[in-house]
Structure prediction request, 1754 residues.
Amino acid sequence: MASELEPEVQAIDRSLLECSAEEIAGKWLQATDLTRELYQHLAHYVPKIYCRGPNPFPQKEDMLAQHVLLGPMEWYLCGEDPAFGFPKLEQANKPSHLCGRVFKVGEPTYSCRDCAVDPTCVLCMECFLGSIHRDHRYRMTTSGGGGFCDCGDTEAWKEGPYCQKHELNTSEIEEEEDPLVHLSEDVIARTYNIFAIMFRYAVEILTWEKESELPEDLAMVEKSDTYYCMLFNDEVHTYEQVIYTLQKAVNCTQKEAIGFATTVDRDGRRSVRYGDFQYCEQAKSVIVRNTSRQTKPLKVQVMHSSIVAHQNFGLKLLSWLGSIIGYSDGLRRILCQVGLQEGPDGENSSLVDRLMLSDSKLWKGARSVYHQLFMSSLLMDLKYKKLFAVRFAKNYERLQSDYVTDDHDREFSVADLSVQIFTVPSLARMLITEENLMSIIIKTFMDHLRHRDAQGRFQFERYTALQAFKFRRVQSLILDLKYVLISKPTEWSEELRQKFLEGFDAFLELLKCMQGMDPITRQVGQHIEMEPEWEAAFTLQMKLTHVISMMLDWCASDEKVLIEAYKKCLAVLMQCHGGYTDGEQPITLSICGHSVETIRYCVSQEKVSIHLPVSRLLAGLHVLLSKSEVAYKFPELLPLSELSPPMLIEHPLRCLVLCAQVHAGMWRRNGFSLVNQIYYYHNVKCRREMFDKDVVMLQTGVSMMDPNHFLMIMLSRFELYQIFSTPDYGKRFSSEITHKDVVQQNNTLIEEMLYLIIMLVGERFSPGVGQVNATDEIKREIIHQLSIKPMAHSELVKSLPEDENKETGMESVIEAVAHFKKPGLTGRGMYELKPECAKEFNLYFYHFSRAEQSKAEEAQRKLKRQNREDTALPPPVLPPFCPLFASLVNILQSDVMLCIMGTILQWAVEHNGYAWSESMLQRVLHLIGMALQEEKQHLENVTEEHVVTFTFTQKISKPGEAPKNSPSILAMLETLQNAPYLEVHKDMIRWILKTFNAVKKMRESSPTSPVAETEGTIMEETSRDKDKAERKRKAEIARLRREKIMAQMSEMQRHFIDENKELFQQTLELDASTSAVLDNSPVASDMTLTALGPAQTQVPEQRQFVTCILCQEEQEVKVESRAMVLAAFVQRSTVLSKNRSKFIQDPEKYDPLFMHPDLSCGTHTSSCGHIMHAHCWQRYFDSVQAKEQRRQQRLRLHTSYDVENGEFLCPLCECLSNTVIPLLLPPRNIFNKLNFSDQPNLTQWIRTISQQIKALQFLRKEESTPNNASTKNSENVDELQLPEGFRPDFRPKNPYSESIKEMLTTFGTATYKVGLKVHPNEEDPRVPIMCWGSCAYTIQSIERILSDEDKPLFGPLPCRLDDCLRSLTRFAAAHWTVASVSVVQGHFCKLFASLVPNDSHEELPCILDIDMFHLLVGLVLAFPALQCQDFSGISLGTGDLHIFHLVTMAHIIQILLTSCTEENGMDQENPTCEEESAVLALYKTLHQYTGSALKEIPSGWHLWRSVRAGIMPFLKCSALFFHYLNGVPSPPDIQVPGTSHFEHLCNYLSLPNNLICLFQENSEIMNSLIESWCRNSEVKRYLEGERDAIRYPRESNKLINLPEDYSSLINQASNFSCPKSGGDKSRAPTLCLVCGSLLCSQSYCCQTELEGEDVGACTAHTYSCGSGVGIFLRVRECQVLFLAGKTKGCFYSPPYLDDYGETDQGLRRGNPLHLCKERFKKIQKLWHQHSVTEEIGHAQEANQTLVGIDWQHL
Ligand SMILES: [Zn+2]
Ligand SMILES: [Zn+2]
Ligand SMILES: [Zn+2]
Ligand SMILES: [Zn+2]
Ligand SMILES: [Zn+2]
Ligand SMILES: [Zn+2]
Ligand SMILES: [Zn+2]
Prediction:
């Protein structure tokens, strides 16, 4: 590009470079008006350096700016060469004890849960590792950018504020010392001058708003016509819209447009066109026109180039200032001073103010530069931090309003600095007292929520999109309020009290606007037309929840404040509901001689609201009062007398009744919005300041009222008063009203009311209500959660309310109530309730949802049955109430309560119709139980002088009075005990009667025997019950087992299985464990088994019968019968690759005949082992295909499999498949002409074969030469002497049935197609090679797995593997029968020539570059094509054996050539054995043939050891291969695990134990062969160190090593920047677990084109690294990603667990994560087994949403 610059520009550059910084600085030092001088300098030079053309050259600009502009300033500042000046400044600097490191996006941050004052206090990784907190409970998160390390801030940490590094700097900081004392007067003066001028310049130019005119003092003499069309960022338009528009407007390529859009998104602006004004204006209008249709248009400005130049330099200047002050704290202080100095225009005219106030007008890039400068200057200086905080608070309202109307995210707004200021407790307190910050925040917030109803309450009901947007932004103000309140004051000053209470007033104003907001009315008749908006109100409630709790905390810390706040809150509540009787008629209620005045009000008919924050705040304050000392000592000081209990309870009661009615189905027509509100009302996120406080308010009310009055009001609000006030109402009710719905409704309401009474009496676990502490409360929550089921840590945390520090307090108590059970390979660690805690279980625990309640009930009863106890779940013993609430218990023995209980029991006794329910009875029984427990406790704790006034037992023994004459409650219970329809409740009634007797006994305090008696009978009874239960249980188990078997059987008969997959999975696994044993069982244990050669063990032909899974027909596998096939999956693989940079470049031309020993790209075949008829499969596949086409037309849905690519799911197990393998008998037997007499030895055999090859090649040449000289040809034929018995014209007859032949072709073609990624072509000569290759590669990969897991070679292999290998090997051996004989012969000749050279094959790979096992398989399987034309009597077995020996020897030479290691110094003194001397001799021969290039190795021991170790994998693979090929059972020795089976393998493979003997026996031919191998120039090059070669044994590939601590991965990833967009941080850094590359995933910047489609970095990487299959770790998400091809993928659970045995996908919880080696191994195993694609298939079948993800863009 540089050369394109005009010569004029280059001339300018040259003149610039001639400037001398020292000279300029000298001129400035002399100047009288420095400002003018500097401005002139800038006006002259800045436009010459910056913005010289359409594209920025940042490096050149920076270089010139440093030279011409900044350099002189540095000289001026130091007064000498800055190279000396700055180090001097640094020496005088006192290093800060604050870390202040500004976080990058994605950088890990740490917060100590034990010591951080609040969760916003964080450490950088370095400080964390050097701090005491690394051994504490900590939380780890990734930073969103912005914010800095709080190390060294003593206010941020309760303990250990310094890390080791920053601790060093603390020694001198005792007294706050002015940092300027270390600087000379001169330096101070000059620094002051230059900072003042330059800072002002930067502020002026950055906030300059004119587009084509410069400020006067910077104006240029001649103005060029050069402009930029500047595009600005907004959060409204999408990337795609911007890219599309740019392509249209400025005529650029898509790539350029992406570049522009990325920069605009990152920096906030980018020039998209450079030229004259007209030219830029034109582009602007196109952009505006194109983007203004739906939304507001993109912001575009046409700016003069000189303005842009000055602005760019302004930014450079700010960063420069930031780096200069890094040298010295003195300079930093001067900058702060300059920044905060008030300007000539008074208030708000300081540079800092000016920047802050124009924040929302600046573009992103400018904002972040100056924010960073603020953080490194103002916030790092203790003195100026305070002054800055005051400026920030004074401007608070403006800044927040600007933010709310702006559209940038909060992290790009200066308003976001609030977290840095407000969370410092001393600053926050100062701002509250001096700047009234609390009130300011709350008022600012309220100002932005102007939408109110007639009563002045917020109205969210019909919110517009714009309002909703604004509302979202306004919420950040609540966060600010939270920051301010986050640390409670330890001491209260009078000012603080005053200002806090002022703030509290403002807060009450806010709550008042919420009290009663969004009221609802029950819909009758019609369903509501539109669901009202409810989320906004609840969002507000949720956001305020913590603030309310903190307000309460503050109040609790000072009694004066508490009482004042209580009074204020009460006053506001009176304002809200003072006239609650307005327009509502007073009525009188009376029951059992009690009467009370109230109003007529029906929840079901009038308006009711769920939002009652003022009432609830009062309830909270009341509890605090109850806890305080005043409540005991001076109750008269409390404003209790002003309370009107009926007024207090009215609204909370209405709200609770509303919930009951919703539950009873009375509000169905009000739609889902109400259901959702009720849900959140009880939900853990809201309940603390909603539902819980309503219960407390009712408790407060009851404790101050006559309980009878309370109950009557309650009956009235529940609209049940009639039922209980009228004697015999129940009877009339059930007979008169036949409307079943109404009865049902009333039943539910009664149940709900009883439940509420249970809660009022039983919920005393909030400190202040009952005599408990906070720990008791959490314990109880946990006990009840774990009563439902054992839970993982995170589940438990989710069910508990968090405080503002995100703590639940769970850890402190969990050990006391639960046992921890560690996780296995899958699943999570679980907490189980300790058995002794079960007695604290309360069935009517108020935080249970209905579903939880019934689950818990079931679980607890089951537990009791298991423990052989009765199944009653009586109420637990409760702690006593606090004095203020003590009288509440009387509700249980109040007349109205007894009346209600009596009435319901009466209904149960009469048991007529449906006017009662069992739940109703159950609740009454529970209440009676509670009352008995209460009385018992009273009696136990009674002191001499007190009389126990709680006399429930007496009251329930009395029968009803006159007109009713009903029996006593006790009598009714006794009756019910024997009611046959109450079987379930019998145990509970029995428990009540027993307890009743016990209490009665205590009261009479005279021992009686009957109790013991009853207990005896109970015991007997229970043991009888137990026997019965046990018998029943056994019968049940037997029945289940029977059912399962039946189900399995019927399942087997089904054709397609799409249900009960799991059951099948189980049966499959069962198969696997019992598999292979049958097949491998030795014929006779003492027999030597030989797998190949003339001496091969003859196996009697076994008939094989198989059943088709599709038609269930059984069939024998025979040569001539219809084909049976196995579902199979062929895939390319690099799992064994030793060279990931290599991949097939041009598949059309690629020759796969020789596999390189780096195994860089293989073809793997797997199968689920399920057998079908070929024709059944064909039919199935056709139907799948047809169905898929229909489905795609209809739904455009994707499936987990790609039908067009031949993929389908196995009809039985749904395993992903893409072809089928035919099932065959051992194919050799068909061709093996048995003639074992007089077989040639190796030398003879090689000679014969060479002759035959020669003859074939001659004939081939004849055929290919044109037929112009036919006579000559025939002569030549005569010339050729055909070897004896060789008949090249013979074509053997194919023995297989048509159907089998067809399947041979099908599978062969599939292997070829997938393996080479080409179009199917069954004629292609490479088809047979690919079949052999897949066979060899699959065997090699299985051998690796077995070795890695230390499993025996022929141990019990899962049957799917066994079946797959057998079929694959036999198929590969039979495939030549459907290929052209001459093609296969051609392959054989070429393969053979690689070991036995002949003239016609020249450029063959050297033996270092051939994988010998692939070669062996190819030779053995191609050999029949040659042998079938040989009638000289050489058997196939002889050929196999000689091929095997020959290849083995070549492999040994390969090993010896590459075995030179550094270990050769280690001489072994052992006497050399036969093998060692033999190998040494061989090595010497080699040494000689290689022209002494081979290193001398004296130790035969070492050589022999290398040979043995190096050849093992080959021997094992060969054993597997010949085993499956010839069907010879494996020797029993190799079936069991053991260290080495070398000898056994040699025997089985017909090899001498001393392998070197092979050479000695055939030395005649071998010497010449070895010589020819060594002659190859590649061998020479290798030995001379010019190239590398694979060594043996090849090590198994492993996934990369992962660090133990997950945060080091996060750190690594946070340092990773996108490789394509110049130093930008990657948003989704993703680690390839195969090769360790870090990729910039899921981002436009790193998309590349692959096969004509845009794909993300991961997909692109899979193609080079894993031939389409990839295993990644998404570092930010802590999630494993599997990818296969472009369309398939799934997420997999990561191998990192927290201390509770749980993964944290998405890093949401932030617990420290550690590597779980077992889980990582499991992932590695999936990879080794080639099961990743299958795993994806299963995941996608199980979760359809995975199918829709655009995996290719990851
Ligand atoms: Zn730090
Ligand atoms: Zn530190
Ligand atoms: Zn700590
Ligand atoms: Zn069939
Ligand atoms: Zn299957
Ligand atoms: Zn990128
Ligand atoms: Zn990779």
In short: The chain has a mean pLDDT of 85. Residues 1108, 1110-1111, 1113, 1172-1173, 1176 surround zinc ion (ligand 4) (CB under 6 Å).
